[in-house]
Design a protein that fits this description.
Number of domains: 1
Number of strands: 9
Shape: globular
Helix content: 40-55%
CATH class: Alpha Beta
Oligomer: single chain
CATH architecture: Alpha-Beta Barrel
Radius of gyration: 18 Å
Largest sheet: 9 strands, mixed
Order of helices and strands: HHEHEHEHEHHEHHEHEEHEH
Distance between the termini: 28 Å
């Protein structure tokens, strides 16, 4: 089983044919079935205005963990279809010019944050000694820096999932208390109950040979499920061998450094 998992990872990172045509077909299916395709924040605005029971909605979110080149390809694909999506950038994938371009197109660009995991690796925190206040201060500095350099609203943010979060049993968005949200004018985090309670079917991409978790969204679209949430990551749709190698080496190094 372990060897099979290693093979699947290697295939996904280095050998897999591009799945971008599949993504195009998925969007076209959604549009042909009458779905409005929204970013996280544009759907949040719909929620606040009141969902139309006669409409069907698909929320499109991209977590930019790695690979700006594929991200640009996805963005251009969506622009050809006049689709709105959310693009959440980590500190190591920030591209201020590209983020401004995303926002100017009507899509959303914002912050994919991971301060608890990052500081836990740096200070070798355990579950019992996580310093939430330090993590909040670090988040505030990073958030304000991004906002200053992009002049974007950053109305929503999205927490990144890391092996360190699984080890700590603490998610990154645990740092977002009401005081911090109010100070920084953050309206929602993508996992907030006030947002997710309106979602009827949630789907995320994953590695070969499964490709979707818990299931492919195509059947939900064909069935006319009212609100579908699709989360994607660029590396699952197009192979970028250099970026994938860099990321794999970095993750191994971070794990070893934390242990030793």
């Amino acid at each position: 089983m372990k060897l099979r998992s290693i093979f699947n990872r290697l295939y996904s990172d280095y050998l897999m044919p591009s799945r971008l045509p599949e993504l195009m077909n998925l969007y076209n299916l959604s549009l042909s079935e009458g779905y409005e395709i929204h970013s996280v924040i544009s759907f949040w605005d719909v929620i606040n205005q009141g969902l139309d029971p006669e409409k069907k909605y698909l929320i499109s979110r991209h977590d930019i963990d790695t690979d700006l080149l594929t991200t640009l390809k996805i963005f251009n694909l969506e622009q050809s279809l006049k689709i709105k999506s959310s693009f959440y950038f980590r500190l190591n994938t920030l591209d201020y010019g590209f983020m401004k371009e995303v926002e100017a197109s009507g899509s959303e660009a914002s912050y994919h944050f991971e301060e608890i995991a990052t500081l836990a690796k740096r200070y070798k925190w355990k579950e019992s000694n996580v310093d939430f206040e330090l993590a909040r201060e670090e988040f505030k500095r990073n958030f304000n820096l991004i906002k200053e350099n992009t002049q974007l609203p950053l109305r929503s943010v999205c927490s990144h999932g890391d092996f360190m979060n699984r080890k700590l049993k603490i998610v990154n968005h645990a740092l977002l208390n009401d005081e911090l949200r109010k100070e920084l004018k953050i309206e929602i985090e993508t996992y907030d109950d006030e947002f997710m309670k309106h979602v009827d079917s949630r789907h995320s991409d994953t590695l070969h040979p499964i490709y979707y978790n818990p299931s492919a969204p195509h059947e939900a679209i064909k069935q006319g499920v009212p609100v579908i949430y699709l989360l994607t990551h660029p590396r699952h749709w197009n192979v970028n061998r250099i970026e994938n190698t860099k990321d794999n080496v970095r993750r191994v190094w971070e794990g070893l450094r934390y242990i030793f």
